[in-house]
Write a structure and sequence with these properties.
single chain; 83 residues; mainly beta; two-stranded antiparallel ribbon; two-stranded antiparallel sheet
């Protein structure tokens, strides 16, 4: 898991995609870095890869209270169970 700071089409992520024994359970959850009030473009850079676990669900928290985010990235959580 991690804040990999690597976009889906990056070289780093290509390496992960070359290993079919790992599953990216966060694929399709959308943007995980919201720009954190900077001029940076929102993108997906946080991932959870599994091996030997089944994913029962993935959540992304996009809470903002009075302009304050939970983090500079949207927190991501996966519900996993052993295969």
């Amino acid at each position: 898991t991690g804040d990999m700071n690597a976009e889906p089409d990056s070289e780093e992520m290509a390496v992960m995609e070359e290993h079919p024994s790992f599953t990216n359970v966060t694929k399709g959850i959308g943007v995980t870095y919201h720009g954190y009030l900077r001029a940076e473009q929102p993108c997906s850079i946080d991932y959870i890869f599994t091996k030997g676990f089944a994913c029962q669900g993935v959540e992304k928290w996009e809470d903002v209270k009075e302009g304050v985010f939970l983090s500079d990235h949207y927190p991501v959580c996966a519900m996993l169970r052993a295969d």
